[in-house]
Each structure stands twice: as structure tokens, then as C-alpha cells.
Amino acid sequence: MIKLVSDTIDKKDINSLVNWLSQDEIPRLTKGELTWELEKKWAKKIGTKYSVFVNSGSSAILLTLAALKYSNKIRNLNIIVPSLSWATDVSSPMLLGYNTFMCDCNLEDLSCDLDHLEKLFKKHDPSIFILVSPLGLIPNMKKIVALCKKYNVLLLEDTCESMGSKYKSKYLGSFGLASFYSLYFGHHLSTIEGGFINTNDEDLYHLLLMMRSHGWDRDLPKPIQKELRKNYKCSDFDSLYNFYVPGFNLRSTDLQAFIGIRAIDKLDDYSKKRRSNFKKYISNLKTNQLKLVENKGDFVSSFAIPVVNRHRNKIAQELQDNKIEVRPLIAGNMANKPMWYNENNIPKLPNCEFVNEFGFYVPNHQDLTDDDINKITNIINKYE
Predict the structure, then answer these.
(1) 19: buried, middle or exposed (CB in 10 Å: 19+, 13-18, 0-12)?
(2) Could you count the other beta carbons within 10 Å of the beta carbon of residue 372?
(3) For residue 202, what is the DSSP state?
(4) 11-265 has which CATH code?
(5) Which of 9, 70, 103, 140 is most buried (CB neighbours < 10 A)?
(6) DSSP 266
(7) What is the pLDDT of residues 107-123, one digit of tens each?
(8) Of 300, 284, 271, 293, nearest in space to 366 by CA
(9) Is 167 helix (H, G, I), strand (E, B) or coil?
(10) Which of 207, 179, 196 is nearest to 68 (CA)?
(11) End-to-end CA, the chain
């Protein structure tokens, strides 16, 4: 069986975890010092000032949008989201009361169609745009950042599928106000479950820390705690259970942080292998209607290989018959899902609809072999 994903947690990780858990004094398992260590290490890796460890990539999206809604950083509740994305890129703003509008994808890197995006910016004057970089592919960050600056739109990056990818030598996830990462099984790195929010904005960072944990101030730096307690005339003792803002419980654990601290050291090697596989796929594939490329100065830490072919269903069946896992391209067109059309009109999104009908993706991970790639591409190339 050629699997779509391969776990990044290996036997060495499990043995290290068992040894850590087997200490005479049982370590703290809920969020504690290891979480802080992990957050600092990840922020340094990506090149941002701050990182917040949460229990999933989806929680990272939900928490950030909730914090922005509560803050004074947005002028309205209008938000643009990609149609080719994941459920929580769309459901999170809907659940939080944002006016949510969908942008079509392009047929090169599968991120937003920039012409359509600018039309939506002009029409709806959004405060926020969520950019998804599907499957590790590289959007045109120069143009996207320029558009957001021109129309005064806050850029949020969903980099859950593009951990390790770089645009002009700079990591995706370090361009916008905040970014989201997933540490779910099968992603570039795993902590079993988990996610990160990265940002350079100190005020947003402090708000995320409070809203991650019920709305209390326990995770804030001491000077900020002192000022907050003074402003609300709250003693140190009473502040233990004083809730300053509406919050959630979206914390992860030190058990997962223990795994994550070691996982970060693997990212470069895993990304190099994924990139090498990506280039072999590009060289081998002859019938893909997507023109996959890696531009000069970029680094594609490929999550999986997207293919668009009008014989999708036949190809998928033959791949499965040969014990090769395959799935639709991400989740397809999110405007076609009941969660959207039960509450909203279905917009015209021709590119995304084309991908939805004929798109799929095939495996790429650190354990994939050249023979695996040859077997997969030989089957796909039979269908023109």
C-alpha cells in the first residue's frame, strides 16, 4: 500500500516520551514550561516574534478570528476566504458572525485568483483576507501583500499545508498579521494533535494568550499582568480566577509540546525530501492540467501532489486498484457544501468548480520512494 501520509512520530520519539513519563517525579502533562519552550522554538524557526500553541490548526483559525473581532483592529466584519480551502477557513468566520465572501482559486498554485480577489476587495471593503497556500504550493506573495496594503486589508495566512515552504527565501506564515499551522497526523510535523498561531503583533499576541485560556491573565508577561490588575482593581489572589475577556479552552498539553520540540528539528530534512519528490513528480507527470512549478528563489515543501485531469474518476479507481491512496483535491469547492449553501447563495467560481470536478491529489511524504512515484505517475499518464 502506498499511503497518502506517513507519521512523523517515530519509535525514537515514542521511547523518549516514555522515558520522560517514567521519571520518579511525574512531569506536568497539561500546558506548562514545555509549551513555552516549544512556542519560542517555533517562532524563531519561522522568523516571527511570537507563537501560540493550541490544540489544532482549526482552533488556531477560530481563536485568531475571535481575537480580532474582540479587538479594535478591524473596521467591519467583512472577510474574504478561499473557496478551495478547508472547512474551518469558512465555518469559523460564519460561526463568529463575520460577513463571509468566497474567492475563486487560480489554476497555477491553487491559491486565490488575484483578479477576482481585487474585485471582492473593491466591492466588499473587507477587514480581513484569509490566504490558503494549498498543498505547500507558493502563492504570489508580493502581489498579495501589495493588494492587501492597497485596500487596507489584514492578511491572515493559513499555512497548515505549507509548513516549510518559502517565498523568495522567506517562510510562508511570516508575511501577514498572523498565520496558522496544523500539527495533525500526516502533516509536515505532528504532535498527535496541535496547531500554532504565529504573529509579530504584541497586542494580538497578548489577547490570544488570554482567549486561549478562558480569558484570564495567567499567561501574560508580569508587567502586563500588573497593569491589567491595577486597571481593574483586582488583587493578585483574586486575579487567579478573574476573566478579563471572553475566552475558550483551546490549550494543548506539555505532553504534545514534548513531541513538538523534537519534531521541529526534523522539518528541514522532511521538507527537502518532499521538495525532491515534488520535482520528480513534475518531471514525470505528462497529463496534469495544472502546470506545477517551483519559481526561482522559492522552496516548495510539498504536502501532496495535486492533479487535474478530466478522467479523474477512472484514474482514482485504477490507483486504488493498485493499492495507492488518493483523495479529492483538498475538500473541493467549499461553496458546494451544505454548511455554505444552506445559509448563503452559491457564487460563480469557475476555476474552483473545475478543480472540484476533475481534481485529486496523490501521495507525497518523507517515506515515499522513487519506485512509488514512478508507479503513480505511470498510471496517471495513461489518461490524456
Answers:
(1) exposed
(2) 19
(3) H
(4) 3.40.640.10
(5) 103
(6) G
(7) 999 999 999 999 999 99
(8) 271
(9) strand
(10) 207
(11) 25
Cβ atoms of 131 and 160 within 8 Å: the answer is no
Q: What is the pLDDT of residues 196-222, one digit of tens each?
A: 999 999 999 999 999 999 999 999 999
Buried b (16+ CB within 10 A) or exposed e, 106-130: bbbbbbbbbebbbebbeebebbbbb
Bridge-based pairing state of the strands 78-82 and 99-103:
parallel
pLDDT in tens, 221-242: 999 999 999 999 999 999 999 9
- The grid coordinates listed for 352 are 474552483
Domain ranges of the chain: 11-265, 267-380
Do the Cβ atoms of 176 and 147 come closer than 8 Å? no
**Residue 26 vs residues 11, 21, 40, 258, 286: alpha-carbon distances, Å:** 21, 6, 24, 14, 56
- The answer regarding whether domain 267-380 maps to CATH 3.30.1510.10 reads no
C-alpha cell at 38: 516549544
The answer to whether the CB of 219 falls within 8 A of the CB of 212 is yes
